[in-house]
Sequence to fold (304 residues):
Amino acid sequence: MRIKLDMKSNAIDSFNEALAKLESAQTGDLKSYKFTILHLSHAIELVLKMYLQTLDENLVFSKCYKKVKQRASEKKIDLLAAFYELEDDGFDFRAVIAGHDNPLTVNVSDVLAIAKNEKCGTTGNNFVDQEFIDDIDWMKGVRNAIEHFQFEFTVKEVRLCIGRLVRGLDEFSDIFSLFDLEKEVGKHCYETFQVLADEYEHSLAEAHMDVREAKDALFKGTRPKHQMFIEWNEYYCEECNNETLIPNDDSKTGYKCTFCGNEESGKIEVDCDVCGLLWANEEMSNWGENLAHVCPRCVNPEKW
Ligand SMILES: [Zn+2]
Ligand SMILES: [Zn+2]
Fold:
C-alpha cells in the first residue's frame, strides 16, 4: 500500500515539475525543454506502473511480470489474458518476490504491452490508442538522446508531442480511474495544463506562437535600417476566426494562416495595376488581363 501512495505523489510532483519547466522553456529558456521531457517521462512511467498495480500490487516487479509473460507464451494468449488466468488460478505474486529487498521493477514498454490489450466492454475498442504508445516511444527516444548528450529535434516537435502526451496521460489516468489529473495540477501551472489538455486550445496557442516566431525570424534577419521596409501584416483569418494570417513565401497569395492553413482573405493588400498603391484586394475592380487589380481611386478619380 505504501508504494502505491508514493507512486501517486511522485507522479504528480514530476508532472507539476514538467509543467513548470515547460513554462520557463516557453518564456525563452530553451534548455528547460530537456527537463520538461525528463520530468514528464518520469511522471508517465509512474502512472503506467500505477495502472499495473490496479491489476496486482506486485505486478510492477519484473519477477512477477515474467510469470505473466511465461503464461502468455505457454498458452499463446495475450499478456492481459495470461494475467487473468493466473489470477483465477489463485497465483500468489507476493510469494515470487518474498525475501527480495529491492526487487527490480518493469519498464514502460512492459506496462504498455499489457495495457494495450485492455478493451472497452461496450464498444470493444482498445482503451489505449496507438498514438499514445507511439508518443511514449518517441519520448523514450528523446530521453535516451538527452542522456547521451545528443539532443536534436525541433522545438515545435517537442511542444506538440508534449501536448499529446499530456492529453494521453489525462485520458489514461481517467480510463483506469487512477486519479483526476486536472485536480492534482498545482495552482501555479494550472493555466499551462489547461492549454495542453485541450487539443483546440493547444493548437491555437501553437498557431499564435508560430506568428510570433515568424515575425521574430523576419526582423532578426534584417538590418535595423531596413526593417521599416519589411512588409509584415497579420490579418484576421475568416476561415478559423483567428488573427493568424501572416506572410508566407510558399503561398500563392503571399499569406497563410498558421492555424488552419487558409491562404485567402479579402483584406490582403495588393498593388493597384494602374497607380501601384496598396489596397485590400476585395476593394479592387477587375478590368481584365493586365488590369486585374484596379483600386477605387483609379476607378473613380473624381470622388477622391
Ligand atoms: Zn485560419
Ligand atoms: Zn490605383
